Amino acid sequence: MIKMCIEFIFDPIKWPREQMDEDFFKLSKMFNAMRSVVRVPDIDPKYKVAVLASKQEHCLVDFLYGWQEGKLPVEITCVISNHDRGPNSHVIRFLERHGIPYHYLCAKENEREEELLELVQNTDFLVLARYMQPVPLQKEAYLGYKLLESLSSKGSLTSYFNMILSGKFLRSYGKDVINIHHGLLPSFKGGKPAKQAFDAGVKLIGATSHFVTEELDAGPIIEQMVERVSHRDNLRTFVQKSEDVEKQCLAKAIKSYCELRVLPYEMNKTVVF
């Protein structure tokens, strides 16, 4: 299997943008390519993206300021949250200045995802900037149950666990969803990864940006970053260092994705050029 990313310069007069898609499509057929995507940053519209976030704001705020500074080549259609922010909060004021809608979804889980699906229909992909939703612990409904059940026995969880998005939503949406996990996957899945890492006595903590799948924290990894820790650190400094790398990791993953440098293959792997 060959994965390839090609960058080139062209004359739009001699090679019109519309003709380019047709030519590359024919070329991909010659090689039986599974997928071929052509994107011209200066001509094609930016990817439309909705950002989902819960109460914690460090990833959301960093994403918004990165977008404002032109570091992230996307168009933000809206910010969606299951946390109600006041009208005078800095996030709401920022969004109002830039004309970006903010949607607070407070309905029950099934109704919330139906409303969410309506809000994101016209997006190209979703970004989860520390978005989690409390879901009742039901064995028959969620693939992440066994993992979370074992965590519950250690006192980490009670009758609820944090889930990102349901399999039903992912299948209905049918496009990529990129998440930031505040831990170095595949270790420390689920809730409180910083505490899990602290209790394990690790020497490196990190963050992982990955595609969201139906299995909790198990999607193909796009980007990972680490920060060294030592016996001098406590749980508070673990969390602080984790938040710093989370912001950088998510921004780099989104930039790589928009530049078509992320190519998934097999079931859970990616090539990142």
UniProtKB/TrEMBL annotation:
Coiled coil ranges: none
Keyword Hydrolase attached: yes
Alphabetical list of SUPFAM superfamilies matching this protein: Formyltransferase
Membrane-spanning segments: none
Domain of life, per lineage: Eukaryota
Single GO BP term: 'de novo' IMP biosynthetic process
Name recorded for this polypeptide: Formyl transferase N-terminal domain-containing protein
